[in-house]
Design goal:
Structural class of chain A: mainly alpha
Strand content of chain A: under 5%
Structural class of chain B: alpha/beta
Number of strands of chain B: 15
Distance between the termini of chain B: 81 Å
Radius of gyration of chain A: 23 Å
Strand content of chain B: 15-25%
Helix content of chain A: over 70%
Oligomer: heterodimer
Order of helices and strands of chain B: HEEHHHEEEHEHHEHHHEHEEEEEHEHEHH
Helix content of chain B: 40-55%
Order of helices and strands of chain A: HHHHHHHHHHHHHHHHHHHH
Radius of gyration of chain B: 25 Å
Shape of chain B: elongated
Number of domains of chain A: 2
Chain lengths: 469, 392
C-alpha cells in the first residue's frame, strides 16, 4: 500500500485512526502494531512472516545482549551482538544483493549459477537500519532494552515510516513509545503535513516524472537542452517524491502522537556539497555517521585514515540505495566531492560569491542524479555526452520548445517549491491577524488537497520510486 | 509569536475539517451509492466489492481488488478527472493521458510504433497468402490516422512518430505481391474537412467516403459498373445525421468528456437494391449495415455494423458473382457501406476475433476478391492477422 492512493486515504487511514483513538491508552501500541502488520502484508502477504520473525528475533536478541551486559559477561555479550548483526545484515544482503552478487560472480568467473529473483521485501533497507540502531545502542548501553514486545514490534513495523523512512533511531523515539502527547491539535497539524506531502508527490513528483520518462525514453542523440530538461525533471522528481513521502510519514506520525525527525531541509538551496548532505535524507546521513563513521574513528584520525573512513561510508551509502554499480559509483562520486571540499577547495569555495557557490552545487547534484538514475555505464556516458553536444546532437530543436511549452510552468513551480520562499510567504500571509487571512490559508490547503485527489482519481500514473530500495 | 502559533493551529483545524469531510463523503458514497457495474466513459467493467476468502487473501488478490473497488466506485469520478484535465491545460499541457489536445477541440490519437516482430510477421503472411492465391484479386490499404493527415491541428513542435515511414514500409513490403492503394494523398487533399472525429480515433463517414473513392479506382472494374446498370452509383448516396451526441474513445481517455461529434451515415437509395447482413457470432440477420441500437449507448461508432464481429456475411441483390473477402479493423466499418452495391457477397473477417479455417471460407464463399483494410495505428500493433492467414 502506498500513502498516495485513494484506498489508503479513504479506508486504511480513517479505520486506523478510529481504532487507535477509541481503545484505551494501554492498547494503542497494540492497535498500531496490528495495523502496521496489515499495512505491511498488503502488498506481499508472505513477507509478514519475515516481519514477525524480525520483531521476535531482535526482541530476544537485544534482551540477551542486555542480560549478558548486566551479568558482566563481555564475551557472550559480544557474541550475541555479532550474531545479531550477521542475521540482520544477512537477511538484507540475501534479499537485496543476492541476485546482484550472483550476476557479478557469474560474469567474473564465467559461471552460470542460476539467479533466483526474489521480490524485495518492502522497506527492508529502512527497517533493517532502524533495528540495527536499536541493537547497537543497546549493546553500547546508550538506551535501555525494551522489555515489552508489543512496544518493540510497534517501533519496528510502524507503518508511517516503514516503507521509505525517515529512519527513526530507537533512541529518538524510546520515550514516545510509552509516553506521547495525543491531542486534537496534533491530529490537525499532522493532516496538514500529510496534505503537503501528498501534493508534493502527486502534483509535482509524478508530473515531472512523466517529463523525465518521456525524454529519457528517447535516443541520447536528442538536443542537448532536452537532455538537460530531462535530468532537471528527474532532479525535481526524486526530491519531491522522497521528501513528499517523508512529509506524509511525519504527518501520519503526528496524527498518532509521534514526533519524527525532519528528513529534508531544502537540500537544493545548498551552497556546497557538504551542506547538501546535511540537508538531504538527514536520517540516513545521521545513521551512517552514528553507526559507521564515528565508530571507525570519524575525523579524529590522521588524514589517510579519515579519507578511508569517508570513502567507506559513501560506498556503503551508495550501495544501500540499490544493488547496482551505478549506485556504488554515485557513492564514490560524493565521497570524493566531500573530501575535495574538506581538503582542497573548501576554503576557496567559502570566499567566492554566493551565487557561484549555488551554481557549483546545483551542477554537482544534477550530475549526481544522472549517475544515480543511469541503468548502465554506457547509458550514463551517452546521456552525459548528450548534455554537452558531444554526440554531434543539436543544442536545441522543436522538441525542446514543445517540452518547455508543456512543462515550463511546472518546472518553475518545482523550482520555487525547492526553496523556502513559498512556505515563508504562505506563513507570512496566513499568520496575519484577521479571519480573512486564515480563510486564505485554509483555502490554499483545501485547493491543493482537492487537486491532489483529482490527480489520484485520474492516476493512471502513480509509481513510487522508493519502492526499489 | 504566540498569537501566530494560535492562528496557525486554527488553520490546521479547518484543514483537518476539509480533509475529514472529503474522506467522509467519499466513504459515505462508497457505502450508500448504487455500485456501478460498467463504466461507459472508460469502456470497462468496474470492480465490485471483493470476496474475502483464504485464497484471495493469501494471493493478494483481495487487496488489489479492494484498492480497485475504492478507485472505481469513487464518487463523481468523471468530475475529478475533468478537474485534473483543466489544471493540466492551465499549466500549458497539450496532451492528456497520452491523447494530443489538438486545435479546434480535436483530440488526436498519437501514432503508434509498430511492434517489430508481429509487424514483420503480418507483412510476410500477407505476401505468402497472396502468392498462394494467384487467382484472387487482392487489394490492400492502410489508412493514415488523423495525427499524420491533419498535421495542421497538432500543437506546434510536438514530437510524434512520423507515420509516413511505417506506411512506406507497408507499401514497399507488399506492392509487388498485391495491389496496394495509398490513401495519403486522397485524405490529405481534404484535411481541412471533417474527415476524422474530434472525440474519437476513427475517421468519419466523409473520410471513409474519400478513401473509398480512391480505393474504387482499383477495386471497381468497368465490368462491375456495367453490371450495375448505372453510370455512378455514388450519386444515389443520401447522407443522414444519426446523432449529434457522440463522445468517443479519445474523449474518454483524455478526460475531455464535453467534446462531442455528430455521426453521419451514407445510404445508397437505389431502386431494387437490397441486401441482407448476417452476424455469424450472434446468428442474427439484418437488412441494414447500420445498427440504430448503438445510438442509445456510449460507443455510437458501433452504428457501423454493430461494432467488431469475428465474421459478417453480406448478400446483395447484385448477381455479378463477385465475392469480396475483407480482413479489417474497425476503420473499415465506416467504409464498408460504400462497397455494398458492387458485390454479390461481402464476407468480413476481423482477425482479432476470428478463429476458423480461412481456406475453407475462401472456397465455401467462392471468394473472387480480397481486401485488407486497416488503419496504421491498429496495423502497427496487430498480432492476429498472420495467425488467421497462415495455418501454423
Amino acid at each position: 500500500m502506498i500513502f498516495s492512493s485513494l484506498f489508503f486515504i479513504c479506508i486504511f487511514l480513517p479505520v486506523t485512526l478510529i481504532l487507535y483513538y477509541v481503545v484505551p491508552r494501554k492498547l494503542k501500541n497494540f492497535i498500531l502494531l496490528i495495523m502496521s502488520l496489515i499495512f505491511y502484508a498488503w502488498g506481499e502477504p508472505v513477507y509478514i512472516l519475515l516481519m514477525i520473525f524480525s520483531i521476535f528475533f531482535n526482541y530476544f536478541s537485544a534482551r540477551s545482549i542486555a542480560y549478558y551486559k548486566d551479568e558482566n559477561k563481555t564475551g557472550l555479550k559480544r557474541t550475541a551482538f555479532i550474531f545479531n548483526l550477521i542475521v540482520n545484515l544477512g537477511l538484507l544482503c540475501f534479499f537485496k544483493y543476492y541476485g546482484f552478487a550472483v550476476e557479478n560472480i557469474n560474469s567474473l568467473f564465467h559461471l552460470t549459477i542460476p539467479i533466483r529473483s526474489l521480490a524485495l521485501p518492502i522497506g527492508i533497507s529502512f527497517y533493517t537500519f532502524q533495528t540495527l540502531s536499536y541493537v547497537i545502542d543497546v549493546f553500547k548501553g546508550n538506551v535501555p532494552v525494551q522489555k515489552n514486545v508489543i512496544n518493540f514490534g510497534a517501533y519496528i513495523s510502524m507503518f508511517p515510516q516503514l516503507i521509505a523512512g525517515p529512519i527513526v533511531r530507537y533512541a529518538d523515539i524510546e520515550k514516545q513509545l510509552t509516553d506521547r502527547v495525543l491531542s486534537f491539535d496534533k491530529i490537525a497539524e499532522g493532516a496538514s503535513w500529510f496534505i503537503i506531502g501528498l501534493s508534493k508527490k502527486v502534483l509535482l513528483a509524478n508530473n515531472v516524472g512523466m517529463l523525465y520518462d518521456a525524454i529519457f525514453a528517447t535516443d541520447p542523440s536528442r538536443a542537448a537542452l532536452t537532455t538537460w530538461i530531462g535530468i532537471i525533471a528527474y532532479t525535481f522528481q526524486i526530491y519531491f517524491d522522497f521528501s513528499g513521502y517523508s512529509d506524509m510519514a511525519i504527518g501520519l506520525g503526528k496524527m498518532l502522537g509521534f514526533e519524527f525527525v525532519q528528513n529534508f531541509n531544502y537540500p537544493y538551496i545548498s551552497t556546497s556539497v557538504t551542506e547538501f548532505w546535511r540537508r538531504w535524507h538527514i536520517s540516513l546521513g545521521t545513521w551512517f555517521r552514528e553507526y559507521v563513521y564515528i565508530p571507525m574513528g570519524g575525523n579524529r584520525v590522521n588524514a589517510g585514515r579519515h579519507i578511508l573512513n569517508i570513502m567507506v561510508v559513501w560506498i556503503l551509502t551508495g550501495f544501500w540505495h540499490g544493488a547496482a554499480w551505478c549506485f556504488v559509483l554515485w557513492g564514490i562520486y560524493y565521497g570524493i566531492l566531500l573530501l575535495l571540499e574538506k581538503y582542497v577547495w573548501g576554503k576557496v569555495l567559502a570566499k567566492i560569491p554566493r551565487v557561484f557557490r549555488h551554481i557549483y552545487t546545483i551542477l554537482l547534484f544534477i550530475f549526481g542524479w544522472l549517475i544515480f538514475t543511469s541503468t548502465s555505464l554506457p547509458s550514463l556516458w551517452q546521456n552525459f555526452a548528450s548534455m554537452f553536444g558531444i554526440l554531434k546532437n543539436p543544442f536545441f530543436n522543436a522538441e525542446t520548445l514543445f517540452y518547455l511549452r508543456n512543462n515550463g510552468i511546472l518546472l518553475v513551480v518545482c523550482g520555487l517549491c525547492s526553496t523556502p520562499l513559498i512556505t515563508k510567504l504562505f506563513t507570512k500571509i496566513a499568520s496575519r491577524k484577521g479571519a480573512g487571512f486564515q480563510i486564505i490559508g485554509v483555502i490554499v490547503y483545501a485547493a491543493i488537497f482537492l487537486l491532489s485527489m483529482a490527480y489520484l482519481v485520474n492516476a493512471t500514473y502513480n509509481p513510487f520510486l522508493y519502492f526499489r530500495f | 509569536m504566540k498569537e501566530r502559533i494560535e492562528q496557525q493551529k486554527r488553520i490546521f483545524k479547518y484543514v483537518l475539517l476539509v480533509f475529514a469531510m472529503v474522506i467522509i463523503i467519499a466513504d459515505a458514497c462508497l457505502i450508500i451509492q448504487h455500485k456501478k457495474v460498467f463504466s461507459e466513459t472508460e469502456n470497462r467493467m468496474l470492480q465490485q466489492f471483493p470476496k474475502l476468502t483464504e485464497e484471495t487473501l493469501l494471493s493478494g488478490r483481495f487487496m488489489k481488488q479492494s484498492e480497485d473497488f475504492v478507485a472505481d466506485q469513487f464518487f463523481l469520478r468523471d468530475g475529478w478527472i475533468a478537474v485534473k484535465l483543466k489544471s493540466d491545460s492551465i499549466i500549458g499541457r497539450q496532451t492528456s493521458n497520452g491523447v494530443i489536445l489538438g486545435k479546434d477541440g480535436f483530440l488526436i490519437e498519437d501514432s503508434a510504433a509498430p511492434i517489430e516482430a508481429s509487424f514483420e510477421k503480418n507483412l510476410s503472411a500477407i505476401r505468402t497468402f497472396a502468392s498462394a492465391h494467384p487467382d484472387l484479386s487482392i487489394t490492400m490499404s492502410v489508412a493514415p490516422n488523423a495525427v499524420s493527415v491533419c498535421d495542421q491541428l497538432l500543437p506546434a513542435n510536438i514530437p510524434i512518430r512520423d507515420q509516413n515511414q511505417d506506411l512506406d514500409a507497408v507499401n514497399d513490403a507488399l506492392s509487388s505481391s498485391l495491389t496496394y492503394v495509398d490513401l495519403r494523398d486522397a485524405l490529405s487533399a481534404h484535411k481541412e474537412e471533417y474527415i476524422y472525429y474530434k472525440s474519437d480515433h476513427h475517421w468519419t463517414s466523409l473520410g471513409a467516403k474519400y478513401a473509398f473513392e480512391e480505393l474504387a479506382k482499383s477495386l471497381v472494374t468497368e465490368e462491375m459498373t456495367e453490371d450495375l446498370g448505372v453510370a455512378d452509383p455514388m450519386q444515389f448516396l443520401v447522407q443522414y445525421t444519426v446523432t449529434e451526441d457522440f463522445s468517443g474513445t479519445m474523449a474518454s481517455t483524455s478526460g475531455a468528456f464535453s467534446v462531442k461529434d455528430p455521426i453521419d451515415i451514407y445510404v445508397y437509395e437505389m431502386d431494387e437494391f437490397q441486401y441482407v447482413v448476417e452476424y455469424t457470432d450472434e446468428q442474427r440477420k439484418s437488412a441494414t449495415v447500420f445498427n440504430s441500437a448503438a445510438l442509445e449507448q456510449k460507443n455510437k461508432y458501433e452504428v457501423f455494423l454493430g461494432g467488431n464481429h469475428p465474421q459478417i456475411n453480406i448478400k446483395t441483390t447484385n448477381l455479378n458473382k463477385k465475392s469480396l473477402l475483407i480482413f479489417k479493423d474497425s476503420y473499415a466499418n465506416a467504409l464498408i457501406p460504400f462497397l455494398l452495391p458492387y458485390y454479390q457477397t461481402i464476407t468480413i473477417v476481423d482477425p482479432r476475433y476470428y478463429s476458423d479455417d480461412i481456406e475453407k471460407l475462401l472456397s465455401d464463399a467462392q471468394i473472387t476478391d480480397v481486401l485488407f483494410l486497416y488503419n496504421m495505428n491498429t496495423f502497427a500493433e496487430d498480432n492476429s492477422l498472420a495467425g488467421v492467414l497462415i495455418d501454423e
